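To: structure subgroup
Subject: Chain for Friday's discussion

All,

I'm putting the inputs and outputs inline so they're searchable in the archive.
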Amino acid sequence: MTEQRSGDGWWVTSFVIGIVALIVGVIGIALAAGDNESRSAAAAGGGTGGQTEFDVTLADISVSPRSIDVPEGQVVTLHVTNTGVMDHDLKVNGESGTRMLKPGESETIVVGPFSAATSAWCTVPGHRAAGMEMAINVVGGTPAGPAHEGSSAGGSSGGSGAGFATI
């Protein structure tokens, strides 16, 4: 008698290995891109008065840039895009910010003004601990403690319509 082998085991093994390799690759690229991406308000075209704008990318598992510098009292506009394969959000002090963004979605939020350093992070369980956090440094402001302690951002929370949220 001839023994027949099933090709299903090979296909499943190849699929699992491929998915694991894809996830590891995405995380590696995201971490490499986020390492040296601290931008200042001056570099982003900001200054005293008016608004400062930053493009923020959420990936699996990183936020880029890793930190931003804004003048004390400055209102900041963040153009947030989820380039990852999972849903992510970005919340200042873990409270107010974007809605949960599906892969490929974007949202613009207005935050501040800030009088002290704080941070923003993804609120999906485990994502902040894995590195999905962005420091918001205030130039001329009061230094904050460790990023996870955070400090209160001024302003009101809630949406202001048409893809914008005011924090």
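Points worth raising on Friday:
The longest helix spans residues 8-34.
The first strand starts at residue 38 and ends at 40.

D.
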